[in-house]
Protein: Pyridoxal 5'-phosphate synthase subunit PdxT
Organism: Niallia taxi
Amino acid sequence: TVKVGVLGLQGAVREHIRALEASGAEAVVVKNTEQLVDVDGLIIPGGESTTIRRLIDKYEFMESLREFAASGKPMFGTCAGLILLAKSIEGYKEPHIGVMDIQVERNSFGRQKESFEANIDIVGIADQFPAVFIRAPHIVSAGENVEILAKHNGRIVVAREGQFLGCSFHPELTNDTRFTDYFINMVKIARVY
Ligand code: GLN
């Protein structure tokens, strides 16, 4: 089995651990940088991107996260995690981790609908996946090496760039294992080579 870490600073950490275990992976809450050496892939959870960023700085995680990305190991950002991976954030001068070639916009699905669920078709991952959006970002634009895997209301909500996978919503909040299975499979394949 593969070992997948979930960055455990803030947000939906336990929910991802539960989802990973339900999909048969070994899951660890990553609370210090040394633990990163030990995992084959990493999930950056949803929550509040500005809070997670503040804690990344406080606990001096940034360099290790960028090294993890540079090592080629798979990383999966959900919601706030997607914002953390993006190379560009609308309205901000600097990105956070800044490794995935996408521009994102925060809280971009409107005020009345702070949260909603929609069934969406995701290329290569799932048809009719129950996607839970909570004050969700969307991907405004993506570089040429980024595969657009799903849109909702014309907006990009799932994308992959090689080792990086990102989505606007919270796959770990449903019992549908297909999205987590897909990431675990990315981790398995990456580990072989
Ligand atoms: N709105 C949050 C942010 O900007 C993301 C919300 C979420 O992760 N559910 O970080």
Residues 3-192 form a domain with the Rossmann fold fold (CATH 3.40.50.880).
